[in-house]
């Protein structure tokens, strides 16, 4: 039971009177208290119908179709709605497409266009379609092989030449190639010329490093300042490979220039017009 106290002129009294006037109560147990205009009057409602201890809410919900449980006469499975069925079909189509793409990526298809055409012919497919290029034809073969693999029938006949296995013995041993007499003489001449000069250069560098009167930084700065006043007189490509050395002729005041490059070629140039001599 619930009670709504009200007083004349108050919001509660107005609400109680309005509810009492518009509600059509069929319950005989519904009673109204004293006159609504009486001070401290109550509007009382009896017990709500069909809510007693014997009320079967589950049965009433099943009768109205609001509750579905297993074990009914029409079976344990219920048909999906149109929207749910369409969603399920879209999901299955997406999963199938992803699986087909995975198969296509896993398949190894030859890049030889003649072999692609031959395999298409063996599968009973046209070798080429209108305006189809090599890459498109290869993709079409890959899709066909993926579809056949899905049906468990896409094994192509393996050509006999593909089964040939060649065993190549790899030799792993140390061996020397005997050089010619001319190569030996040339290397001996290079060593006799280069090694003494390299030793002298290293000794001079060590001596200059311990000499307190030698300032290498000042010498480098002086050389950089001197080259800053140079101007380009002419330009010429000295070699196909990078140049390794360049020397001016000392006898004629630098009238000739000798260049040597990584290609092993020596070239002599004139300094007046940068022409070969």
UniProtKB/TrEMBL annotation:
Pfam families: PRP4. Residues 111-161 form the Pre-mRNA processing factor 4 (PRP4)-like domain. GO terms for biological process: mRNA splicing, via spliceosome. GO terms for cellular component: U4/U6 x U5 tri-snRNP complex. It comes from the Eukaryota. Residues 1-35 are annotated as: Disordered. GO terms for molecular function: U4 snRNA binding; U6 snRNA binding. InterPro entries: PRP4-like, PRP4-like_sf. This is Pre-mRNA processing factor 4 (PRP4)-like domain-containing protein.
């Amino acid at each position: 039971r619930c009670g709504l106290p009200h007083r004349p002129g108050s919001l509660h009294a107005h609400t109680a009177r309005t509810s009492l006037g518009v509600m059509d109560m069929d319950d005989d147990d519904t009673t109204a208290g004293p006159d609504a205009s009486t001070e401290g009057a109550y509007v009382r409602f009896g017990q709500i119908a069909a809510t007693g201890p014997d009320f079967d809410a589950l049965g009433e919900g099943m009768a109205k179709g609001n509750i579905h449980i297993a074990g009914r006469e029409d079976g344990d499975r219920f048909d999906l709605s149109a929207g749910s069925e369409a969603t399920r079909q879209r999901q299955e189509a997406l999963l199938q497409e992803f699986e087909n793409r995975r198969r296509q990526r896993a398949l190894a298809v030859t890049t030889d266009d003649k072999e692609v055409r031959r395999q298409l012919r063996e599968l009973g497919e046209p070798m080429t379609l209108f305006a189809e290029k090599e890459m498109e034809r290869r993709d079409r073969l890959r899709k066909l092989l993926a579809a056949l693999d899905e049906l468990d029938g896409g094994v192509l006949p393996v050509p006999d030449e593909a089964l040939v296995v060649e065993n190549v013995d790899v030799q792993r041993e140390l061996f020397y190639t005997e050089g010619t007499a001319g190569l030996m003489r040339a290397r001996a001449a290079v060593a006799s010329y280069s090694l003494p000069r390299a030793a002298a250069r290293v000794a001079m560098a060590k001596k200059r490093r311990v000499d307190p009167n030698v300032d290498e930084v000042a010498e480098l700065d002086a050389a950089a300042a001197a080259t800053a006043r140079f101007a380009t007189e002419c330009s010429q490509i000295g070699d196909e490979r990078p140049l390794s050395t360049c020397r001016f002729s000392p006898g004629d005041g630098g009238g000739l220039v000798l260049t040597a490059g990584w290609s092993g070629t020596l070239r002599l140039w004139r300094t007046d017009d940068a022409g070969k001599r």
